[in-house]
Amino acid sequence: MADQVNAPTLGFIGFGNMAQAMAKGLVEAGALPGTRIYATAAHFDKLQASTAALGAHACEDARGVVKASDFVVVAVKPHLVASVLEPVRDALAAPGKAVISVAAGCGFDFYEGVLAPGTHHLSTIPNTPIAVGAGVVACEQRHSLSEGELAAFEDLFGQVALIEWVDGKLLSTASAIAGCGPAFAAMFLEALGDAGVKHGLP
Q1: Complete domains list, the chain, with CATH
Q2: Are 149 and 98 in contact, with CB atoms under 8 Å apart?
Q3: Are 87 and 60 in contact (CB under 8 A)?
Q4: Which of 2, 12, 136, 145 could bond 149 through an S-S bridge, CB–CB 3.0 to 4.6 Å?
Q5: For residues 105 and 79, what is the distance between their CA atoms, to the nearest angstrom?
Q6: Quick one: pLDDT at residue 180?
């Protein structure tokens, strides 16, 4: 059980399948209470239902998420990242804020062009088994987090995932393997069971 009193606050800009898997994993593992999680998404009524299930906070816009959060997770489709972050560009550069991206294909150089100079950021790709504390998070070796932020990130997400550091040019490859691997594993495990039954195993 983590020290929840001193745990960071975590905000999600976008609260689709991956963001919800991350939040669910953290809450159910006892790594972070839902009360320290904030989220915003395009459909507020759906967002309210999703956050309520975790005891988290639904925010009407990205500004609310950034204001409340130490770590801000960018979890929208890659083509939306720049436009979604523009209104909070300056706020994200404030002391005590760090951006964690889970948007595929958006690496360090991309964020250097989108975020305000001096913004602390890290590009990652998690996979959905993080929802049950068995995830993998591929992280780009090049980042601008402080030592303290990096330690806090690893301490938090290390409770629900194996954290692997890779060169930026390998991030997409690592994320494809980590992201698709569980689905292929589920398929062949199911096929093994079906084959056993077909040939007479109870």
Answers
A1: 10-198 (3.40.50.720)
A2: yes
A3: no
A4: 145
A5: 10
A6: 84
Calculate the CA 34 to chain-centre distance.
15
Indicate the SS3 state at residue 160.
coil
**What confidence tens digit (pLDDT) does each residue in 74-96 have?**
999 999 999 999 999 999 999 99
Which tokens go with 200?
A: 């007479």
SS3 of residue 43 by DSSP? coil
Q: What are the structure tokens assigned to 8, written together?
A: 């960071």
Residue labelled with tokens 């594993």: 185
Q: How confident is the model at residue 3 (pLDDT cuts 50, 70, 90)?
A: low
- CA 98, 129, 78, 177 dihedral sign is positive
Provide the H-helix boundaries in the chain. 17-28, 44-52, 62-68, 81-85, 89-92, 108-114, 147-157, 171-198
Q: Is the pLDDT of residue 5 over 90?
A: no
Q: In what order do the strands lie in the sheet with 121-126?
A: 57-58, 37-40, 10-13, 71-74, 98-101, 121-126, 135-140, 161-166
Q: What is the pLDDT of residue 73?
A: 98
Helices 17-28 and 147-157: crossing angle in degrees, nearest 10, is 80
